[in-house]
User: What shape does this take?
Amino acid sequence: MKNWMITTLTLTVLLFVGCSKYTTPRKVEKRLVEGSWKISTFTLDGVSIAENYATDIFSFGESGKISVKGGVLANGSWEMGLIKDPAVIYLSFPAIGGLEYLADDWQVLEMKKDMMRLKRNDSSGLSSTLVFKKTGS
Assistant: This one.
């Protein structure tokens, strides 16, 4: 009887530890609109292009608007997808100053108060990663 309880407890613990926790769309929406963001990492098919966005600051509004200031002045939009595992965010930008490379749907791999890590959500074979970090202001 004791062995059965220990085995059951062990399996239960392993089940909870082994389950990956995903970021919910609600959590992304809540944290995204708090403050301004900068791109710290942006790779396009293995090549870093983050330096092209070094002066750009992104502000995500609750209404789905994105304001970009810095090296380029532009507006875009964002929307959360209905998928929950992983959460997907849709970014839309005009073809100005390289912002068109951000316009796509992205899987939210990680969302923290001061960092958001994304991966391009397509099957084209083009691998892209994008990391936004909260600015100090």
